[in-house]
Write a structure and sequence with these properties.
Structural class: mainly alpha
Strand content: under 5%
Shape: globular
Pfam families: OpgC_C
Organism: Leisingera daeponensis
Protein name: OpgC domain-containing protein
Radius of gyration: 24 Å
InterPro entries: UCP028704_OpgC
Order of helices and strands: HHHHHHHHHHHHHHHHHHH
Helix content: 55-70%
Largest sheet: none
Keywords: Membrane, Transmembrane, Transmembrane helix
Number of helices: 19
Length: about 425
């Protein structure tokens, strides 16, 4: 038996109230972890640096010091963000509408890929046509095949059977997104079923792990050669769904343990000469005997650290780095938040806000930065690429992707809509 407390004044239709305000649980699911946007923002800055041709700063990005690089940060954080954006749609609106939303996102990513290609192809063609430079900018992106056999390559471009180098991460991301409805459907059969499916798909790209030969399933990138997609989505989905699983709650947060911190840090540091030629050369300069013991492992571990199919050593290396970053940020990212009114605290608060904004608008920033990197490279070609010139070019690039992030956020807010 229940009683209803009196409520003064006119009674409101409770169904109308429910339609006006989303459930508290749904609202809570939309809260973004600050660590997610911060680290994804860091990845966007690194990706810009990595893609500027002949960039001095690219010698100091994470890829030069271990097995994994900024691509892993981008894919892992994209999986986490997808758990927030799409996972809640599956939970609230069911599998069919959740799948429809994923397909709509794939549609956006597909046209972002096509648009990026045509913008850069036209831009590089314009530089070659109207400029008098000592290099071919069409050739710098290996696009001669496209311009000499456009009919075939145009068909391949739209069917994703022609994926030129430099334009390969968005197709990978698109295919990985398409696997999400499968994983969400398998969730009903149990989380072990989801994990088994992701590992099984990864093994199709990495059959050497179970002794089935060196060549796995891949996607063709060029109709005239046997080159495959540089990022095989069948391999990279393992990392994406690892991030997805952590944010969705399928995997528990790892404990903060001094032993685990030491273990992760030891792996990152001690594996560096085995995964980085830069560090290996430092070791060789310090002790040729130690370097002589390390050198043979490069051939032995070639498949285990391969980037295309996402080798197991890359996965282990990234998870070690991710754990260290997670511990360093503190619970809920509390150590990222500046405290106090000192100058250093205020500067960090501004930097944190800028980096986070870039992370929140990662797709727009990524597409923009890939185009921007080529133009910065062109500008540097007209200089002597001195240290200060290169630093200025990189900092201008950082400023422009920040502007891109704020501009994208402004458009997404739809300020032209009347406020109620």
């Amino acid at each position: 038996m229940s009683s209803v407390a009196p409520f003064p004044g006119p009674q409101k239709d409770p169904s109308a109230a429910n339609r006006a305000a989303p459930p508290l649980q749904a609202a809570q699911q939309r809260v973004r972890d600050p660590r997610l946007d911060f680290y994804r923002g860091i990845a966007m800055f690194i990706i810009l640096v990595a893609h500027i041709p002949g960039n001095r700063w690219a010698s100091w990005i994470p890829a030069r010091f271990g097995f994994s690089d900024a691509t892993e940060i981008f894919v892992f954080c994209s999986g986490m963000a997808s758990a927030i954006a799409f996972g809640s749609s599956f939970a609230r609106q069911g599998w069919w509408l959740g799948t429809a939303r994923v397909i709509f996102r794939c549609w956006q990513v597909y046209w972002a890929h096509i648009g990026l290609f045509f913008f850069l192809a036209a831009s590089m063609a314009a530089l070659d046509l109207y400029g008098s430079f000592d290099k071919s900018y069409i050739g710098s992106l290996n696009l001669h095949w496209f311009f000499t056999n456009t009919v075939q390559q145009l068909t391949g471009l739209f069917t994703l059977t022609y994926v030129p180098n430099y334009f390969d991460i968005l197709p990978m991301y698109l295919v990985v997104l398409l696997l999400m409805p499968l994983m969400m459907g398998l969730e009903k059969a149990g989380l072990w079923t989801v994990a088994a499916a992701s590992v099984a798909i990864w093994l199709t790209a990495n059959p050497y792990i179970i002794g089935l030969g060196p060549n796995g399933v891949s996607f063709p990138a060029e109709p005239w050669s046997d080159r495959e997609w540089f990022f095989n989505p069948l391999g990279w989905q393992l990392l994406f769904f690892t991030g997805f699983a952590f944010m969705k709650g399928w995997l528990p947060a790892p404990p903060v343990s001094k032993a685990l911190v030491i273990l992760a840090a030891a792996f990152v540091i001690l594996s560096a000469p085995f995964g980085s030629w830069k560090v290996f050369l430092w070791v060789e300069a310090a002790n040729k005997d130690v370097a002589g013991l390390i050198r043979p492992t490069w051939e032995i571990t070639a498949q285990w650290r391969e980037k295309t199919d996402f080798g197991l050593l890359r996965y282990t290396h990234f998870l070690s780095l991710a754990y260290l970053g997670w511990v360093a940020a503190g619970t809920g990212g509390k150590r990222l938040i500046a405290s106090g009114q000192s100058l250093a605290a205020r500067i960090w608060a501004v930097l944190l806000q800028l980096i986070t904004k870039v992370g929140q608008q990662s797709l727009a920033v990524f597409v923009f930065s890939m185009a921007l990197a080529r133009f910065i490279g062109f500008a540097l070609d007209q200089t002597d690429r001195a240290v200060m010139t290169t630093a200025f070019a990189n900092l201008v690039g950082f400023f422009l992707i920040i502007v891109c992030a704020y501009t994208a956020a402004w458009f997404k807010s739809q300020p032209w809509r009347a406020k109620r």
